[in-house]
Fold:
Amino acid sequence: MKEFKVDKLSVVIAESNSEMGRIAAKAIAADLIRLGKEKSEIRVMFAAAPSQNSMFEALGNEAGIPWEKIVAFHMDEYVGISIDRPQSFRLFLKKAVFDRKPFKAVNLIEGDSRDREAPVCDYERRLLERPMDMIVLGIGENGHIAFNDPDVADFNDNHMVKIVELDDVCRQQQVNDGCFSAFDDVPKRAVTVTIPAFRQAGVLHCVVPNSRKANAVKEALCGPVTERCPASILRTHENAHLYLDAESASLL
Structure:
C-alpha cells in the first residue's frame, strides 16, 4: 500500500480491488462511528456503480456503524428507468446496502416520474436542508463525478440537482460495466446531483478501481483543476480521500 497527498487530497494505492475495498470500508466506518458520536442524524450520499462493490461488501462487515442514524441519499438516476429495471441505480443501492441495513431514512431520485421537474425540485429541496456529512463516490472514465460529465460539469452550479445529457464516453462506460448490452440501450439523459453538493460535504471517500479509470485518475491528480476533468475538484476539498487499486493507479 502506498499513501501520498495531491494538494489537499489524500490518496491510497492498494495492490488489489479487494484490498482497496477493505481499506476504504474501514475508513468510511471509522468516520461514520465518529459522526454517530457527534450527531443524532448522519446524512450520507452513495454512488451506485460496480466500482463500489468491493467497498460495499467490506463495509457490510464492519462493526459498530450507527446505521439507524444514517439518512441516505444517492447521486444520480437515469431518466425514464423504473426502479424494477436491473439498470436502475436505486435498485443497485437497495440490493447493495439500503435493504441490508436499518437506515433511519432513504431518499431516492424518481427518474421515471412523468413530471420530470418535480422530483428534481423535491430532491434539491432535501439537499438544501443541510450539507452531506459524507459522500461515498467514484470517478467515471471521462473524469465525471455523479453524472457531471465534462460538457455539463460546473464547479459553481446554481442548482444542487439537474437533468443532464450524458456524453458518449459516459454512455459507453455503462456498457463496459455490464449494465447495458449495447450503447444504444443506454439512456441519453439522467438526473444528477451537481458538484456543489460534493464541495459542501463534510468528508469525501472516493473509491476507484479498474484500468479503464487509469487515464481519468491521472488527469484528476496530475492535470489542472478544471471542469474538463470534474474529479479534479477533489484536490481542493479539506477532507477528501481517494482509494485506488494497482490498475487504476497504473498511469501515475
Remarks:
- Residues 2-162+232-244 form a domain with the Rossmann fold fold (CATH 3.40.50.1360).
- The mean pLDDT is 96.
- The CA atoms of residues 134 and 203 lie 5 Å apart.
